[in-house]
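Sorry, can you check?
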Amino acid sequence: MKLISKKNALLFVCFTAGHFLFAQLDKDATKETKHLYRNLKTISKNHILFGHQHALEYGHGWSNEPNRSDVKSVTGSHPAVIGIDFSDFSGRSFEQIQKTKELLRKNVIDTYERGGITTVSWHFNNPASDGGFYWKDGISAPSMALIKPGGSYHEQYKEILKTIADFAHSVKAKNGTLSPMIFRPFHEFDGGWFWWGKPHTSREDFIAVWQFTVSYLKDTLGVHNFIYAFSPDNQFNNAEEYLERYPGDEFVDMLGMDDYGDFGRDGKYDLEAGRKKLKIFSDIAIQKNKLAAFTETGLESIPNTKWWTEVLLKTIQSEKLELAYVLVWRNDSTSPTHFYAPFPGQSSEKDFIEFYNNPFTIFEKDLKNIYSKKFKM
C-alpha cells in the first residue's frame, strides 16, 4: 500500500458543484460521470493518475488472463486509468464487432467496479476507403468531408456512432449504474499519419465532424456517461496553435496531448519542449475550468532505466501543471520490444516502483469512491 502524507490525503474531501463552476459539457451526464469529472479536477491540483493502454487485455508475453496487468505484476496495483480502443467497432464483420464489444464491456465494468477509470481511444477505420485508420497514399480517402453532415457517407457514420452508443448504454455494473468513460476521438489530428489528420482535412470539416459526433451521441442517442477529450499530438508551440482546431468549450471536457517525440523516441529528448507544451494546454484548461491530461506518452522498450523518475516524473512536476492523468502506450503480447510499461525483470522495474511509491502518483489501489461525492485515498 502506498503511503500518502496526511497533508495530501486531506485534499481528498467532498467537492460539490458549489466549489467551482461546473464545466462539463453534458448537463444530463450521469451522477457518477459528474462525480468523476469533479474528482479528477480535484486530483489534478496535487497528484496525477497513472494509466496504461490495453493494460487488462494483454501484456508482455500473455493475453486474456483475468485480473492481470503487467503494472499489477510489478507494483501490486493495476493502473488507475485503463485504456481501451473502439477500433474494431467498424470495418469488421458483425460477429467480430459483437465479440469485441463483449470483451470490452467486461473490461470496462470490471474496471469500474474495482474503482478504476476507463479512457477510450478510437483508431477509426476509414469508412469511405480501404487503408484502415492510417493514411496510405493512393488508397486512403480524405473522409472527414464525406462523413460530416451533408456528406456522402454521413448516414454510414451515424450507424457507426449508433454502435458506439449501444456499447455506452451496455456497460452497466451489478448495481445498475453505467460505467463512465473518457472518450478521446480523432486523436493526434495535427499530424498526417491518420486519415483525419491535418493534411487531409480542413479545419472547418474537422470541427464540423467533432461537433456533430458529440451532439449526436449526447443529444440524439442519449449517451450520458462520456467525458470528451481533445488531444492533438505535439505539433504546436503556443496556445493559438493548440486551439487551431478546437471545436468550442461546449464540445470538449478535457484537453490533452500525445507526445512521444519529446520524451526519448529514437533516442531524442527535448524535455524542455515537452514541459512547455504540457504547460500550454494545462494553463488553457485552468482558464477554461476544464480537465487536462497527458493522454499518451512513453518510451518504447524503456531502455532508459531511470525514465520514470528522471524523465517523466521530473517533467510533470517541474511546473504548476494540473493534469488528471498520464497514460503510456501498450505492451504487445508477442513482440519482444514493443512495450511501454515494465514487467517483472524489465530493466526499469526498480525505477518504476520508485515512481509508484512517490506520493504524487496515484494508482488504482489508491482510489476510493472516485465516482461519489466523497472519495479518499
The longest strand covers residues 291-297. Residues 3-21 have pLDDT under 50 and may be disordered.
